[in-house]
Predict the 3D structure of the following.
Amino acid sequence: MIVISKSQKVLKKNNVMITGNLKSEKTMIFVHGFGTDQTAWSKVAQAFSNDYRIVLLDNVGAGKSDMQAFVQSRYQKLDKYADDVLDICDALNIKNAILIGHSVGGMISILSGVRSPECFSKIIVIGTSPCYLNSDNYFGGLTNADVRDIYYSIQQNHREWSFNFARMAMKNPDQPELVNNFAKTLMDIPVERILTVLHSIFQIDYREEISKLNVRSLIIQAQEDSFVPMQVAEFLHEKIKDSKLELIHAAGHLPHITSPQIVIPAISKFIN
């Protein structure tokens, strides 16, 4: 009988991959956003692989994570995803790592830093929002009607919605292969799972929680992000005490994929 340790179970659950300089005492952890997996970080992670131990993971429900672990009632909010990140840190005995998250992965990173600041020396978020819905004194970019329309479009024609979403997200018509690859990834996700994950994203409101973060942070915002308005990046910067806002000359919601040559120097400047 083969006995699997708790640490092994944690790493298998999130399909954790450890690459880069395995002898380095410095660690970088990458958390992907909706519709992608750890491969989204390939170009960015490679740029730091000589100097850092690189930890890549798939959020539960994405990539090659353990799909049996994706229980809807557990992942209705982002808190459980943050628990997973901290479980990985515990399993690998990680302290003072640089944690980098994109979109919802950025919010997961912030929540992780709030809960266990000792695990991270710096946190970097790209295209991240604490709340996507508009309210009286806050512009998140979406109304309740917008969200209902998104859900309806997915249920009516999953394929058409996937391509439309991918085009809006990438916003780089000169790189059609990126749109096609992202659309295919979205089409491979069952509709029920897409709706569950999007519900957990659209219903979040962590505007109060982010002010509790006490880890030095960088907020990277593309000039033309289809899903996260500049006002949201400015809100994050205002609420997170020790933070820097870096506006990059890039289009789309996934600049780490479309414009890694711009994202990598922004990260390097901050961590060095």
